[in-house]
Automatic annotation (TrEMBL):
SUPFAM superfamilies listed in its UniProt record: TPR-like
Disordered: annotated segments: 120-144
N-terminal signal peptide: none
Gene3D superfamilies: Tetratricopeptide repeat domain (1.25.40.10)
Name of the protein this chain belongs to: Tetratricopeptide repeat protein
Source organism of this protein record: Wenzhouxiangella limi
Transmembrane regions listed in the UniProt entry: none
UniProt biased composition (Basic and acidic residues): 127-144
Amino acid sequence: MPDPRLKEAIEQHQDGRLPEAETLYRAILADDPDHAEVHGRLGDIAYRTGHFEDAARLLHQALQRQPEDPAIWKNLVQALMQAGYADDAAKVLEEGRRLGLLTVDPGTLAASHSVAEFSLDAADLPTPREELSGQDPDKDGPQR
């Protein structure tokens, strides 16, 4: 049975009451630290409030728990770009494409539903020279 706090947190999130939503999301994570959706939604809040490194960390955690969700991949690329980690963004984009989860052109990449509006410009993405390294940004931080 879904946690009833999740519905309330999502409503608060959608209404722009981000601090209240964040509090509920964190309470849910305290009880269920592997809740992919909550990690993703906290990543969205961090993104919307300008905490791009936190957004990237949270979205990476969501991706580890739900790697088949293309929206998480897109949102992670955007958070990495905003945080100044263009090389990592390019690697995530390339890996998502390789797995068939990101099929859009980087010039038109925009979040499908959760990250604030931001479009990647293809000129901002360096040509990736290697696949995603598998480094754990939670432990080691994103590579620059």
